[in-house]
């Protein structure tokens, strides 16, 4: 491992010090039938609402691909942050119906 990848380590007086990288390996993406997704409605400042899809287990690339498909389905903007898919507007029913059609286990959550 090169020294450039050792962020936060400046110097150690321990002669047996071994630098360990704390980055986590991404989990392998589960099959759609094994995913247990929850679809929430969240309110942001200014009275805006967003649809949030939580519970996806898999790689970031697969999560972003799923997020893009859902954004196209809803015809709305959104993003993928903190292992959640955020879609602008209230699209819970449409998202749940589409996910169930693609063999995902999905249901409404929250109040």
Which key phrases capture this entry?
alpha+beta; 2 helices; Translation Initiation Factor Eif1; elongated; 5 strands; 111 residues
Report on the architecture of this protein.
The structure is a single chain. The protein has helices at residues 60-74, 92-101, and strands at residues 36-43, 49-54, 78-81, 84-88, 105-108. The chain is an alpha+beta fold. The chain has a domain at 33-109: SUI1-like domain (Translation Initiation Factor Eif1, 2-Layer Sandwich). Strands 3-4-2-1-5 form a five-stranded mixed β-sheet, covered by helices on one side. A hairpin with a 5-residue loop joins β1 and β2. The radius of gyration is 19 Å and the shape is elongated. It starts with 35 loop residues before the first strand and ends with a strand. The model has no long low-confidence stretch (mean pLDDT 85).
Give a short synopsis of this structure:
This protein has 111 residues and is of the alpha+beta class.
Radius of gyration equals 19 Å
The profile of the biggest β sheet is: 5 strands, mixed
CATH superfamily of the domain at 33-109: SUI1-like domain
Question: H/E series, N to C?
Answer: EEHEEHE
Number of helices: 2
Low-confidence stretches: none
Binned, the helix content reads 10-25%
> What's the pLDDT, averaged over the residues?
85
Give the strand tally: 5
Family: Belongs to the SUI1 family.
Domain SUI1: 37-103
Keywords: Initiation factor, Protein biosynthesis, Translation regulation
Region (Disordered): 1-25
């Amino acid at each position: 491992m090169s020294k450039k990848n050792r962020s936060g380590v400046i110097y150690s007086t321990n002669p047996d010090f071994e630098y360990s990288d704390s980055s986590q390996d991404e989990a392998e993406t589960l099959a759609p039938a094994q995913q247990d997704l929850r679809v929430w409605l969240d309110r942001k400042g200014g009275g805006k609402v967003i649809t949030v899809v939580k519970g996806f287990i898999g790689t970031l690339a697969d999560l972003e691909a799923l997020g893009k498909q859902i954004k196209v389905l809803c015809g709305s903007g959104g993003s993928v942050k903190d292992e959640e898919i955020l879609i602008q507007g209230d699209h819970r029913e449409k998202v749940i119906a589409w996910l169930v059609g693609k063999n995902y286990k999905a249901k409404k959550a929250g109040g």
